[in-house]
């Protein structure tokens, strides 16, 4: 579990399937948009804007959308821009000295807080927590700024989520942690799902078809107390509901409609939401596939275009989590996800589709393939060994690099922690576990909830199943990002996934990725594991990651 309580005071709802051959997701949906010019920089020297994080709009005065630059102009909301200009945030804006953009941070605070029911979103409150960021009980490197009461409730819900495996046992279902690495869970006909209701008090929701067949006292004991659990009766089991979702997906694909299918885990059960710009095309047939009371139709588009920031980091500050450019193919950029190794080389790990098609499915030494940071700093001088897979169920690439000798993960220009463990498939609690990433479009952290652990996509360039989906608003350029969660003292991180694709959700584009276990399985290597900084560049000096199941 992502645990605040184990890490000082640290500081989802949907399952989405992109469908239809007319999807607005591009051929490489998260890979980056063409050719934003790079800012000047020099090897070994960071490029810093005059006002870090305040771009063209500065510390005072109005903020117009074009002031945000191409990477953020299409991404942040009107509400965030207005709030960033408000008197309530004047002190925070005046004191802002972070690399990541101030307006983007306001937008992120709003989006994150609207996913839960106990975090305030008014301007006065956000102004206070952002002004007091050096002293508040959030973790500044994660960009999660909380007051004392919010952190206390966050911590309570996080610890409560740790009880879900015991609750699952109490209703007679298999504990996923006891499964073999590649095994998928099998649920009984009474199981409707278990998750936390983040918009309704944070309780554990136990959905069953027949409540008389479960032991309520055993469930309460497993959760700790009865007030933390709600047992809800549903008409369809977990397997039946997923089958209905699949039937809707198949029908939309057959009709070549532009739509996304979401599964929302609510306080009363699971519900389908279909996001489409053409809702009238659903009417003739939808009711014959799924009960209408289980479906909400939302009118919306599914695309998002963005480019990335222009910061050049020095040789000593090259870390996983930064934006990278690919050559051949400087018209696109991706994100350095994590570092890994074999017994011979250390590797930059990113998405398989990053770069031209020649290197999407490739294994061997290349003198042409290069990775640069901000089109300035060469991360792969000389020949590089490339091992890459891109296709159904696979999207991962490793490229040898002398700068992948340290598995410290980027967070706003500083080391956040060392990636020590690899997490396995099917080991998350939907709606309860959190994950975070340093995204290439911002070079800053965003966090969200795990929304589905066996996501299915039939969209062009996003095809596959057994992906993991997370409620982090992702854009082109974020491909390859390493999804991580804190795992103990704050100097250890666990890798959840490598970001693959952006999919439509109400209010944003959530991310899907290839699970860490399957990335390791596909690439045939191990993630770098250490409890402190490693100074030796020799891959043979990295230890193997212990096998754990969260």
Describe this structure as you would to a colleague:
16% of the residues lie in helices and 28% in strands. The protein is built from nine helices and 25 strands. Helix 1 (78-85) packs across helix 3 (102-113) and helix 6 runs antiparallel to helix 7 (216-223). The radius of gyration is 23 Å and the shape is globular. The N and C termini lie close together (6 Å). Residues 1-49 have low confidence and may be disordered.
Question: What's the end-to-end separation, in Å?
Answer: 6 Å
Largest sheet: 8 strands, mixed
Radius of gyration: 23 Å
- Percent of residues in β-strands: 25-35%
Low-confidence stretches are 1-49
Structural class: alpha+beta
Percent of residues in helices comes to 10-25%
Number of helices: 9
Count of DSSP strands: 25
Assembly state (oligomeric): single chain
Mean pLDDT: 81
């Amino acid at each position: 579990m992502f645990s605040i309580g184990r890490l000082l005071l640290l500081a989802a709802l949907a399952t989405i399937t992109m469908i239809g051959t007319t999807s607005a997701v591009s051929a490489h949906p998260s890979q980056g948009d063409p050719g934003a010019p790079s800012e000047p920089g020099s090897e070994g020297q960071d490029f810093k804007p005059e006002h870090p994080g305040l771009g063209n709009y500065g510390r005072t005065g109005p903020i117009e959308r074009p002031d945000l630059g191409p990477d953020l102009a299409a991404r942040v909301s009107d509400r965030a821009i207005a709030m960033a200009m408000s008197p309530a945030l004047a002190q925070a804006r005046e004191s802002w000295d972070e690399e990541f953009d101030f307006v983007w941070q306001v937008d992120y605070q709003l989006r994150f807080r609207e996913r839960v029911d106990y975090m305030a979103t008014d301007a006065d409150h956000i102004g206070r927590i952002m002004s007091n960021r050096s002293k508040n009980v959030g973790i500044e490197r994660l960009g999660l700024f909380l007051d004392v009461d919010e952190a206390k409730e966050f911590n309570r819900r996080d610890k409560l989520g740790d009880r879900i495996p015991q609750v699952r046992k109490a209703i007679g279902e298999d504990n996923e942690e006891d499964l073999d690495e590649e095994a998928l869970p099998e649920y009984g006909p009474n199981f409707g799902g278990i998750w936390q209701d983040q918009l309704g008090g944070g309780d554990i929701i136990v959905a069953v078809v027949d409540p008389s067949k479960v032991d309520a006292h055993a469930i309460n004991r497993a959760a700790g107390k009865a007030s933390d659990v709600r047992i809800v009766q549903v008409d369809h089991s977990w397997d039946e509901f997923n089958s209905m979702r699949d039937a809707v997906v198949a029908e939309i694909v057959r009709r070549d409609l532009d739509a996304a299918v979401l599964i929302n885990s609510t306080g009363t059960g699971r519900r389908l939401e279909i996001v489409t710009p053409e809702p009238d095309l659903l009417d003739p047939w939808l009711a014959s596939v799924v009960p209408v009371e289980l479906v909400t139709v939302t009118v919306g588009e599914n695309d998002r275009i963005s480019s990335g920031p222009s910061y050049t980091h020095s040789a000593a500050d090259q870390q996983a989590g930064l934006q990278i450019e690919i050559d051949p193919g400087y018209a696109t950029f991706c994100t350095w996800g994590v570092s890994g190794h074999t017994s011979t080389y250390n590797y930059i790990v990113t998405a398989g589709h990053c770069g031209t098609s020649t290197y999407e499915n490739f294994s061997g030494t290349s003198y042409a393939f290069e990775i640069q940071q901000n089109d300035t700093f060469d991360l792969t001088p000389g020949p590089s060994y490339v091992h890459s897979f891109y296709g159904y169920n696979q999207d991962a690439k490793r490229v040898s690099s002398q700068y992948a000798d340290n598995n410290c993960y980027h967070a706003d220009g500083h080391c956040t922690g060392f990636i020590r463990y690899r997490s396995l498939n099917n080991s998350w609690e939907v709606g309860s576990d959190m994950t975070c990433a340093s995204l290439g479009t911002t070079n800053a952290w965003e966090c969200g909830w795990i929304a589905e652990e066996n996501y299915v996509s039939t969209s062009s360039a996003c095809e596959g199943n057994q992906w993991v989906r997370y409620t982090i608003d992702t854009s082109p350029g974020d491909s390859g990002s390493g999804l991580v969660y804190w795992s103990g003292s704050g100097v250890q991180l666990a890798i959840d996934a490598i970001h693959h694709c952006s999919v439509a959700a109400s209010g944003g584009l959530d991310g899907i990725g290839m699970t860490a276990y399957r990335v390791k399985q596909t690439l045939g290597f191990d993630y770098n594991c250490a409890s402190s900084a490693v100074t030796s560049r020799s891959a043979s000096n990295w230890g193997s990651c212990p096998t754990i199941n969260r």
